[in-house]
């Protein structure tokens, strides 16, 4: 069972590192997930990897929500006269 968990943690970590370098939310999520995983059965690495993924997901959702609130910026054809 431990090898399954270790393999899953390694797969999650590799999946997280193959994404672009935009790590908004990852560090906070990794810290919280690592601490929670440590206290919930000494699975700090798995918690950190999962927290990173969840933190990035939430940061992307927040960014999309902020962009949806902004009005579109279409330049008018009369500019440049």
List the helices and strands and how they pair.
Elements: H1 2-17, H2 26-39, H3 44-69
Helix pairs in contact: 1-3, 2-3
Compressed to H and E, one letter per element, the order equals HHH
Q: Which structural class is indicated by helix and strand composition?
A: mainly alpha
Number of domains: 1
Summarize the amount of helix as a percent range: 55-70%
| Main beta-sheet strand count, sense and barrel state | none
Count of discrete alpha- or pi-helical segments spanning 4 or more residues: 3
Distance between the termini: 71 Å
Can you tag this structure with a few keywords?
81 residues, mainly alpha, 69% helix, rod-shaped
Description:
The chain has 81 residues and is mostly helical. It has one domain. 69% of the residues lie in helices and 0% in strands. The protein has three helices and no strands. It has helices at residues 2-17, 26-39, 44-69. α1 runs parallel beside α3 (44-69) and α2 (26-39) packs antiparallel against α3. It is rod-shaped. It starts with a helix and ends in a 12-residue tail after the last helix.
